[in-house]
Structures are given as structure tokens and as C-alpha cells.
Amino acid sequence: MPITASGWLDSIVDRALTPLTGETTMDPTACLARIIDAIEDEDEDEVKYACEDLRTWLDKGGFPPEGYSRESAYRFLHSVGYLVSAE
What we know:
With 87 residues, this protein is mostly helical. It has helices at 5-17, 28-40, 44-59, 70-86. Helix 2 (28-40) runs antiparallel to helix 3 and helix 3 runs antiparallel to helix 4 (70-86). The longest helix has 17 residues, at 70-86. The chain starts with a helix and ends with a helix.
């Protein structure tokens, strides 16, 4: 059976949205917003949890937040780590 255009597109989207581990997907852009909101709310625990979620996602091959490369997303997480540990 030939692969249809929509079947091919679905396959590409599935591979883009799911890390190689086969775990469920997440929205890294929403996670980044979660980090920023937690910083603004001065919620140190939520900052740590959201950063851990995004770092784990990236470490397992997930795509970076919109507007970020993988490298710049890691740099952002690194800089946030300094903000959290400085308090």
C-alpha cells in the first residue's frame, strides 16, 4: 500500500513531536512560558520543576521551544540555574 501525502505528513509530525524514547509529547514552548511565569511569580520550586522538565525533554531528543535552537535552550536553562541558585 503506497504512503499517501497525509500519511507521510502524519509520520513526519509524529517523529518531530516524540523524542526517540517514545514517551508522550510535551510543548516545550509552553514549558518555557511556565519557567518565565514562575520566575515572575518568584516561585523557585516551580522554576526548578519546569527547568527539569524542559532539560529532560531536550536530553531525550525533543525539539526546542519555538525561536530557540537546542544550544540556546540549554544556555537559557543554564542561566536560569544561576538565578535560582543565587537566591
